[in-house]
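Ligand-bound model needed. zinc ion.
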Amino acid sequence: MKIVDVLRLAGEGFLSLLYPPHCAACGADTEAGVYVCAACAEQVKRIEAPFCRQCSQPFDGAIEGEFTCFQCKERGYHFDCAVTRFMSRGVVRDYIHRFKYDRQYYLRHPLADWMAEALDDERIRSQPFDAFVPVPLHPARYRERDFNQAEVLAKLIAKRAGRPVLKALKRVRYTSTQTKLDREERMENLRNAFRVRHASAVQSRHLILVDDVFTTGSTVEECARVLRQAGAASVRVVTVARG
Ligand SMILES: [Zn+2]
Ligand SMILES: [Zn+2]
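Prediction:
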């Protein structure tokens, strides 16, 4: 066992004695539990109104009140809305990547802080919900990574919201990486990739689907589609950020 694993087992409290709190982006000293210094936090790109009520895509221009973007109207998603307060740029994108691909597991904390802001949104607060459902990873991908980023984040925000995490979905088809595909190719790639474990667990439930990033929306759309098909009353989506 490597020394870092021993230290991880010894607990993060112990680790924090060895590594005093600092900004994970620039290394500046911070207070305990703060992972982004004030200067770096200022660079974070927040989503400000006006934005699409359904997909949160910001709109450059003057629109009074609520609107739904042309794409959402065309597509007719199975989720009511995809809520996030941040664009996946700069520090936010950097932390998501380091968390997912470089195993910088401690970055789950600032990511959960950002994701939790979505819970304050009127689109989430206006109607109660029963459970958080993480977007699942395929078992092969899970073995490779050791954790499902969506599930880790769902657990952290579920604790704050006092609602359970429901692992209602499983990924039954291994899908190649989606990053180079356009939206239509992604939808094709994802067809029948997800299954609901027990329909009775989601029937008539109001669910919050959790993923790290909303990019084209095809992953959460496919998850929402099977959840609704299994009888879920509603599906709303929260993510750390939006592509
Ligand atoms: Zn910083
Ligand atoms: Zn939209």
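The beta strands are 82-83, 131-134, 169-171, 194-196, 206-214, 234-242.
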